[in-house]
Amino acid sequence: MPFKITKSLSAIAVGLSLSACLPAETGSQNGASVNATTGVAASDPVVAASFDGGSVRWNDDSVMVYRFMAIERAGEVFLCGAYAGEGRSYTTQFNRELLRRSAATVNGEEVMRNLAFFNRASAETLEAGLEGSNTRCRSTGLAAGSVALEDVDVELRQGRIRIRV
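^ that's the sequence the OP posted. Answer follows.
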């Protein structure tokens, strides 16, 4: 057992030392440069009062709050979002699985599945409604101007979610 712990710690140390060697800007993601430290595109918006969103309360009283906004970038409509949760240790898995099974819609028609790309914000931002948190964006595949940005909505999956604990 001590060998495995040492091995894991050395792998973490190698990962940290490699990330320190990377430049602050590395490549692009969906038409925007990406910060190597945060993994968030430099031009992704920060959650503000104008963002739409909602919350989920799990059976054990854990909670997840999510916020999103549609933007136009590089001639396409992108969905940008963030979420945060608090509660028991396995709540994080529930939140990710719920987002993975959820979809973006326009006028009731599904245009994007799997919203697990939403940026996970600190639980400390929950009380402020995630305002000031970074978002992460993905293309919906829709051309800019083909739909009104305010018509892009998020539909969370209804029903049971099971995870392995």
